[in-house]
């Protein structure tokens, strides 16, 4: 971004200005580590409210990068390092969308308000630029020969969250478009290479080249606090996050390679890695010994006998003895009582007869306070229908008359 230096610089886009900083480091003498400072190199005050930006070697230059800023009213502003180059307005503009640059074709990929992907070459944008276009974008459509036309377009039919063109191959470019319900991979001529239907609401993504083959890995975050890793259209890994990411990047530090850097809407930055914590425990070696199979067979037979004996053992609780716990024998006298024992000995001048029934009760177990009830069918009646006994011990006989 700086003409006087080939070092990396930091470009920061504000709503009304573009600032470029130089990052310088100072070795630290304490345990806190090195110190880094930002030094302002230059800045551009913008006449229009900025929305987003992209950078790259516009026009095929080498050694430097130019910056393209998209404004909220649909104007593309180009800056060649510390000077403003030109600007042009997008046709049929309504709302700003994602913006990306493809270095292989030297073209810009945008998404219009009609939900279609449009590609504009840098040469076409530079030719269409006019000095008066900075003040009034409507003059572009009124000026003959200055109509801006897209190199190709592709209708998606859904809102687009982000566009990314990873530099995975110098001979082949892939344009990844993240929609609300689908992930598209396009060729640099606008043809669809593949499409992945998503079953969740994505929040951000990052395509990057695989180190093992020619495929492309994709990190994708969703609104379920999930981080998904795809290899083309195949899901390879899924991890749970503590928040919904809005930006995902892969960072390499001095001793840490491939860290996943995520940022949420509250400005919380997190560096993490995928996988499990490595285990540093090493099992000790077991002393090998010769196995005597005869002794193993003998020990196995002894253990089988013990198991068989345990399974055939009776229950620990004593089983109940067979037969009735209480036996009852009632003996009815064949003759009437000589003296009536009825409750009412006479009724209407006639004597009421009675008969005695002897009941023998035998208990084979201890019974606490047993009760006996006598029931007869009318017109018969009993002198006493309830009997309550004291506790009965085992093999005790009770005689009830």
TrEMBL record:
InterPro entries: PHTB1_GAE_dom (IPR028074), PHTB1_N_dom (IPR028073), PTHB1 (IPR026511). One of its GO terms (cellular component) is BBSome. Keywords: Signal. Residues 1-278 form the PTHB1 N-terminal domain. Residues 351-393 form the PTHB1 GAE domain. One of its GO terms (biological process) is cilium assembly. It comes from the Eukaryota. Residues 1-22 form the signal peptide. PANTHER family: PARATHYROID HORMONE-RESPONSIVE B1 GENE, PROTEIN PTHB1. This is Protein PTHB1. It comes from Triplophysa rosa. The lineage of its organism: Eukaryota, Metazoa, Chordata, Craniata, Vertebrata.
């Amino acid at each position: 971004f700086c003409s006087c230096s080939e070092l990396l610089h930091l470009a920061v886009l504000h709503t009304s200005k573009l600032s470029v900083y130089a990052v310088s480091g100072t070795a630290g003498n304490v345990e806190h580590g090195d110190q880094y400072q930002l030094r302002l190199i230059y800045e551009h005050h913008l006449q229009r409210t900025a929305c987003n930006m992209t950078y790259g070697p516009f026009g095929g230059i080498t050694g430097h990068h130019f910056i393209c800023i998209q404004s909220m009213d649909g104007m593309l502003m180009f800056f060649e390092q510390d000077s403003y180059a030109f600007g042009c307005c997008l046709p049929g503009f309504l709302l700003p969308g994602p913006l990306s640059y493809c270095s292989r074709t030297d073209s810009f990929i945008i998404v219009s308000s009609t939900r279609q992907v449009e590609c504009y070459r840098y040469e076409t944008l530079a030719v269409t630029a006019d000095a008066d276009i900075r003040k009034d974008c409507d003059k572009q459509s009124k000026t003959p020969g200055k109509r801006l036309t897209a190199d190709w377009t592709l209708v998606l039919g859904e809102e687009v969250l982000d566009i990314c063109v990873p530099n995975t191959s110098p001979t082949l470019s892939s344009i990844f478009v993240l929609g609300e319900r689908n992930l598209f991979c396009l060729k640099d001529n606008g043809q669809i290479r593949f499409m992945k239907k998503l079953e969740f609401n994505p929040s951000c993504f990052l395509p990057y080249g695989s180190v093992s083959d020619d495929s492309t890995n994709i990190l994708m975050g969703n609104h379920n606090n999930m981080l998904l890793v795809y290899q083309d259209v195949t899901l390879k890994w899924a991890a749970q996050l503590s928040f919904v990411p809005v930006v995902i990047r892969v960072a390499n530090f001095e001793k840490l390679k491939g860290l996943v850097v995520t940022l949420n809407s509250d400005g919380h930055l997190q560096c993490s890695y995928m996988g499990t914590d490595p285990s540093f425990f090493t099992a000790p070696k077991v002393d090998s010994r010769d196995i005597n199979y005869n002794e193993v067979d003998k020990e196995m037979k002894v253990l089988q006998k013990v198991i068989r004996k345990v399974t055939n053992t009776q229950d620990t609780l004593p089983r109940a003895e067979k037969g009735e716990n209480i036996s009852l024998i009632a003996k009815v006298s064949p003759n009437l009582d000589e003296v009536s024992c009825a409750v009412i000995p006479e009724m209407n001048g006639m004597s009421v007869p009675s008969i005695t029934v002897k009941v023998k009760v035998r208990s084979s177990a201890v019974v606490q306070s047993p009760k006996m009830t006598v029931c007869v069918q009318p017109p018969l009646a009993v002198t006493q229908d309830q009997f309550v006994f004291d506790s009965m011990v085992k093999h005790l006989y009770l005689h009830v008359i």
